Structures are given as C-alpha cells and as structure tokens.
Amino acid sequence: MKITNVDVVLEERPGFSPSFVWRKNLPGSDGSSTGAWLVIETDAGITGFASAPRGVIFKDYVDRRFRSEFIGQDPLMREYLWERVWELDRIERFAPNMTHVFDVALWDIGAKAANLPVYKLLGGYRDSLPAYASTVTYSSIEEFLDIADQALALGYPAIKLHAFGDAKKDALLGEKLRAHVGDDVPLMYDGSAGFDLEDAVYLGNALYDSGFAWYEEPMREFSITAYKWLGQRVKIPLLLGEVTDGAHMSAGDFAATGVATSLRTSTFLRGGFTGAMRIAHLADAYHLRAEVHGMGLESAHLCMAIKNTTYYESLIWGNPMKREALVDAQGNVHGPKGPGVGYETIWAQSGVPKGLEKYVK
Ligand SMILES: [Mg+2]
C-alpha cells in the first residue's frame, strides 16, 4: 500500500464552557478555536483521518514537512514513520500536541485494512471500562457539589476535579466534596501545573487526608528533582507525565526515578497510539499503571488495549452537565466498533465535518 494524497481541512471548534482555569491569574482554556482534520489517501482506496488542534500551525507543518515525507510511503510501516516524525521534530521542534496526528491516521488506515477497530489491532484487553467525570472549573464550591450530584446521578462512578488553582481553596473543595459524596466514591485531583513546590505539598497532604485516589500534575513537569522532593513530602499517589515531550523517552525517567506512582498516557500528547502503547508497556515493566488522558474515540481505544489502566477520562462541562455520548448510563465506556478509529460512525449521526465530504465513503 502507498500513500497517494495528504490533505488538511480546517475546522472551527467550540471551546469548553465554563473553561478550565487551572491556576490563579490566568485566563484558562480556549474559547472557540481553529482545529484541523488530517486526511491520508492510499492507492488501496483506504482513507485515514485524524484530528489536530491549532489547525493553521498544523497545516503549515504539513505543507512544509509532512506531505513530502509521507507521500509514496507505505502507511502500514507505522514504526518507521513514527521515527521519521521524531527525526523531523529535531529540526522543527513540533508542538508536542501535534506529533501524534500522522500516527493516529496511520492506525486508522491499518485497522481499516484489517477490518478491525484500532484497539483490537493494538491487542485488545477488555471491551468496557468505567469512566470518571472530569470537571471543568465551576464557579464555586457549592456549584462543584451540585455538579458532583449530577455526575453520580448520570452513572459516573468517580469524579476528578480541575479546580480553582488556589491551594487553600482547592483543599477546602476536596474536603467538602469528600464529606458530600461519602467515603466510597473515588475522587481524583488534577492540578494542571498550577502550583510551586510549597503549595503542591500543602495541597497534596490535604487531598490525601480527604482520601483522594490520585494527585495529577501539580507542578510543571520540567524538573524530575522537584517531583522527587514533592514525593518525599506527600503520601498521596502521584500521576505524572501528561505533558512532557518525547513520549516514552521522557516517561522513562518518571518511572525509573520512582517519582511517579502512575504514568499518564494519551494519543494526543504522547505520540499517537504508538507512543501511548510504548508508555503503557514501559509502565507495566515496573508494575505501574498507565492512566489514559483525555476523552474521545482515540482514548476509548487505548482504554480497551492497555491492561494497566483503570479509568476513561470523560470531560464534563456546562450546568446542567450532560453525560458524554460514549459513556453509558452505568458510567462505562465501550470498545468503539470501528473499523479503524471509527470517526465515520460518529459522523453518520452528527454529520461529516465541512470539507471532508469528498473523502468519506
Ligand atoms: Mg491532566
């Protein structure tokens, strides 16, 4: 099989409302933005798709670097092409949230060629997994408690907070939420790098006292040493490695130094399905968990293929909040049907994104 065409179709996308704030004194996550769909056509009549953020920048990468690299290549040679992206990265220093896009489209092609959903081509491990409700930043502790009630009523068995980014206020939220939902609901906390070491220690100890299951990325992940010092001062499990560059090549140090209780893995920040599975297997070598980051079909496939993972991250927003379409009334996500990633099954209901019509069979 050979790649015959590489196209990029820009798409306007809404943001989250309310947004993710993550820390004091910052505006938080995007409003609406321009994303992109990558399209890879082949001489076998199979077309692969993948979604990219920051569409204008991604299109520039494709126009200057990727198109000429990929046309004429065998799309089933995913390992080779994954390494080529990292070679080009040395020249370009791609945004870490864009190194995965080609890999996802190549797995879409490979799984379609095998007439399988991606997770079965990766090596399926399960067919369903519980989802946790992963919140945006609501306005007050009272609103968070109301949202927790809504999430539990909709079937979600566990809740993760993206809170105010204020160590004292977030500690109080954790305490109030635990008292509100009782001892049996698993709670997690995602700091999204909002803190320095002193505040991260304070909040980590408070969340431990409130029985939180994990403490995710409280500081920027530039310094393993800073995390080592944090680990010496808190007892709460640390889930790390969501945003470091270099996929398994950086995740390795979080595991080998003993800093991370569990590693983060994802398609969209960790090098696609190929990078995500490398991280999962690396973690498994040390009997660590590799928790899948982020929602959507790609994450659902990873959740079905990775043995050492425990939850699917289902982002919730709005008030009243809605249950994500991929999650059922019991709070479980299921193996996407495919073939491939299965974007076409979603588009059959929601409509094909504008500009992709000619590529969707
Ligand atoms: Mg996170």
From TrEMBL:
Statement: the UniProt record of this protein carries the keyword Acyltransferase: no
SMART domains (UniProt xref): MR_MLE (SM00922)
Obligatory cofactor(s): Mg(2+)
A biological process term (GO) from this entry: carbohydrate catabolic process
Protein keywords: Magnesium, Metal-binding
Mandelate racemase/muconate lactonizing enzyme C-terminal domain span: 141-237
Keyword Protease listed: no
A molecular function GO annotation: hydro-lyase activity
SUPFAM superfamilies on file: Enolase C-terminal domain-like (SSF51604), Enolase N-terminal domain-like (SSF54826)
Protein name: Unannotated protein
Origin species: freshwater metagenome
